[in-house]
Design brief:
By secondary structure, the protein is of the alpha+beta class. The chain folds into three domains: 190 residues, no CATH class; 185 residues, Aminopeptidase; 152 residues, Immunoglobulin-like (Sandwich), CATH 2.60.40. The strands form four sheets. The chain has a six-stranded mixed sheet with strand order 13-12-16-10-9-18, with no helix packed on it. Strands 3-2-1-4-7 form a five-stranded mixed sheet, with helices on both faces. A five-stranded mixed sheet has the order 14-15-11-8-17.
Length: 565
């Protein structure tokens, strides 16, 4: 009889635990719908709807957590096999409930409108409040991720393991979304002059004449900020710099000269050949101090593709020429059509400057949604189309590991990173017709990549090219590109081929703490060529390969695989 009672009690407990687990699951699934509502309401700046959805969400997660509490559940967590699953379910419920209190509810008070200028000014006090909220949200996500990542999934049944993995993925995605916002908000108040006026030199790189960092930087504006008030105070273009020089305008890194030549310091079109934004900005500062002589506190780089992203948020803007600049026509108009329209380089630069002014005016007037602007800036920064550097160590520390810094990590710790940088060698604007794709892999101490450069320039199009696009040195259908490939820190250059044949490098050396190899690719009319490069002796570290590359006129697809797999 006693045995029967024990078995019956165990069965009753098992049924009760199963019912509790199903209750928890049901409430967690219901909570997911409310999470979507909160997110949509925050982005729409509907605080009332977000608050109501967060309250409903809190009820669901509290109801999900309640069945996992008490002695029966706690005792069952010690039962072999069953216990690990119940413990995982409880931890997921606890983390989800904590997320509502630490992340979701504070997020309902996010005032994204604080990011949008109005009348040429951004409210830096409101930005500070927004930054405080985001700090708390980021801390909550980090705490939740730490708890979930410690769960051992090896002994879990599929349903429980899948739930843990799903929450892990959601937290990772949330952290990925928050990271750039957190970085930007950390520096934005001071960057906008909260602690004193600042002046920014903004350079616009033209991708139609490819350079490692983007393109030939020929147009510059100075933006003055003072306690959130923003204005353009100066316009400069390449004609304002007295060049070429017999000697570099500043002392140059011998390693950089060995790969790119000293022209990076003797001609302003070439300082962006160096794929390190702080170095390039230092060379530009040498030109600026020599020929312009106004104060600059920090440097920003943008390209027309980044402008097109911003125009998607602001909507079309009118230009003094009568043109309307849109997200759809900005890239072809600024990188190609303008050269057909204006043969005089001074007129070209004036047109580019007018376009930059128009977009700046739209941005500072408050045109466009804050979330749209955040998305546009985030996308441009991730693609290396917006770069930033300053002498403020706190600012640089916040963005040190991000693409926006324009500086490849120089330490071997972390993930291996491969660099692929393109420089036009035809003194033309024909890089507009080039597209690049990259297939890369890393495994067993080796990093390899196949880089494809494809030209879409056909004979009919080439025949109509104006001189300023065609360039003086190569036949109409030819596009000569110097491609510099950087291996991971601590690795060794092993081999390079073009179209399956061993290539003779133009330069091989060390630069930026990495091995680097330079080759020439010559496209003739519509054609494509493939560079295969291999680096060995890659130090052990992170498993996920990263690739930084020149931001071209159009998107560069990057495919990451496992070497040999």
């Amino acid at each position: 009889m006693l045995l029967v009672l024990i078995v019956a009690g165990a069965a009753f407990a098992a049924v009760k635990l199963y019912d509790r687990a199903m209750t928890t699951r049901a409430h967690l699934e219901a909570a997911m719908g409310e999470v979507q509502t909160v997110q949509q309401s925050v982005l729409a700046q509907d605080t009332a709807a977000a608050t109501e959805a967060a309250a409903r969400l809190a009820q669901e997660t509290s109801a999900a957590l309640e069945p996992t509490q008490g002695r029966l559940w706690a005792f069952a967590e010690y039962v072999p096999w069953v216990g690990s699953n119940l413990a995982a379910v409880r931890q997921v419920a606890e983390v989800t409930d904590a997320l509502v209190a630490d992340v979701v509810t504070p997020a309902t008070q996010l005032n994204l409108a604080a990011l949008a200028p109005s009348g040429g000014r951004i409210d830096v006090a409101a930005l500070g409040e927004l930054s405080t909220v985001v700090d708390g949200v980021a801390t909550g996500v980090e705490k939740a991720s730490s708890t979930i990542n410690k769960i051992d999934k090896s002994g879990l049944i599929d349903q429980v393991s899948a739930g843990v993995v799903k929450l892990e993925g959601a937290l990772a995605k949330l952290d990925e979304t928050l990271a750039p916002v957190h970085e930007i908000l950390g520096v934005l108040p001071e960057a906008l002059g909260a602690g004193g006026a600042r002046d920014y030199l903004v350079m616009f790189q033209g991708n139609s004449e490819a350079r490692s960092l983007g393109g030939n930087a020929a147009v510059f504006i100075v933006i003055h900020v003072d306690n959130g008030a923003i204005s353009i105070t100066e316009h400069v273009d390449s004609s304002d710099f007295k060049q070429p020089l017999d000697e570099p305008v500043v002392p140059l890194d011998p390693e950089a000269v060995a790969i790119y030549g000293d022209k990076i310091g003797r001609y302003t079109p070439d300082f962006t050949m160096v794929p390190d934004f702080p170095t390039a900005s230092g060379i530009l500062q040498g030109w600026w101090d020599r020929d312009v002589q106004t104060n600059v506190d920090a440097y920003i780089s943008m390209d027309p593709v980044a402008l097109s992203y911003l125009l998607a948020a602001t909507g079309p803007v009118a230009l003094p020429t009568g043109d309307t600049l849109t997200a759809e026509n900005a890239v072809p108009l600024l990188l190609n059509e303008a050269y057909f329209r204006y043969e005089d380089p001074l007129m070209q630069n004036a047109f580019f400057g007018a376009a930059a002014d128009a977009v700046f005016t739209a941005l500072t007037s408050g045109t466009g949604s804050p979330t749209g602007l955040i998305s546009a800036l985030g996308r441009a920064a991730a693609e290396g189309r917006i770069l930033y550097t300053s002498e403020d160590p706190d600012e640089m520390a916040l963005i040190a590991s991000s693409r926006m810094s324009g500086r490849m990590p120089t330490a071997a710790e972390g993930n291996p990173l491969l660099g692929v940088f393109v420089n036009d060698n035809t003194a033309s604007k024909k890089s507009y017709y080039l597209d690049m794709s990259i297939d890369a892999c890393a495994a067993d101490g080796e990093t390899s990549a196949s880089v494809t450069l494809k030209s879409s320039l056909d004979e009919a199009e080439a025949a109509r090219l104006p001189y300023y696009i065609a360039g003086p040195y190569y036949p109409l259908g030819d596009i000569s590109s110097y491609v510099v490939l950087y291996g991971p820190v601590g690795s060794m250059f092993a081999s390079v081929e073009i179209d399956g044949q061993a290539a003779t490098p133009l330069a091989v050396g060390q630069h930026l703490g990495r091995p680097a190899v330079k080759v020439e690719v010559l496209n003739h009319y519509v054609s494509e060529h493939v560079i295969d490069v291999r680096f060995t002796d890659v130090p052990a570290g992170g498993e996920d390969l990263e690739v930084w590359h020149t931001p071209m006129t159009r998107e560069t697809p990057v495919t990451l695989t496992s070497c040999g797999g």
